[in-house]
Amino acid sequence: MPSPPIQVFLTTIASQPVLRKRQEYILRILQTKKIPFTPYDLASDEDAKRLWKRKTPLDKQQLPGILVGGRYPGDFDAFEGAVECDELDTFLRLKETWNADVDEDRPAPAVKPVGVPGAVPVSQMTPEHHKPKYFPKDPDASLKPVNKREGDFDISTELEGFGLQGVRVTDDDLWQLVADLGLDGDEAADMVNSLGGGADTRNSAEPSPSRSELKTQAHQETEPGEGEATPIADNNVSKDYKH
């Protein structure tokens, strides 16, 4: 039997440095210890916001927050204390068993993209026994038309945890991006390769000559070549005219 599911409640509207650091700390600990969790952004997810308020005491609703199996285990200070005292297994109930049919009072909110850095998509953090529940297969998915550009790919496979799920780009898009950032040469190539892109094909066609190149070419064609004599005007015409 799996352990109770862990839900982490965050916000993309984190203007206070303390709030950002606490979110980063929780996410870093869970990822380092490879503990699966489901992130929610309360700034945009109303269902998750209602769940958080319903399950949490009124004086303990500060973010970031955690629910374990639908229960409130404690605030951030309690989480930090559990990490320092090596009691995270107890705090997160990792050694307990969980039966969704018996222990869950209602279905969890639908999983949505989270724009908080470090909040890895749940599809990559959730163990296999939870995936059928959170990611049910759509039998009609193969029948739905998909508009794709040739050669594009999902950028979230390379940039995890930035809310880019479903954003598709091509190699040309990546090259244009690094160009806009002021990168060129080897630096640009390294950046594109690190993002999963390929060779630059934007300038594969032969560029048309510039205006200055055309003027230079025309000037060279009118000048005599090396070793050629410059034609001399015939003076006989003027002599005959005088006579």
From TrEMBL:
Residues 201-211 have a biased composition (Polar residues). Residues 135-144, 212-222 have a biased composition (Basic and acidic residues). GO terms for cellular component: cytoplasm. Gene3D superfamilies: Glutaredoxin (3.40.30.10). Pfam families: SH3BGR (PF04908). Residues 108-122 have a biased composition (Low complexity). InterPro entries: Glut_rich_SH3-bd (IPR006993), SH3BGR (IPR051033), Thioredoxin-like_sf (IPR036249). Residues 104-144, 192-243 are annotated as: Disordered. Belongs to the SH3BGR family. This is SH3 domain-binding glutamic acid-rich protein. It comes from Paxillus rubicundulus Ve08.2h10.
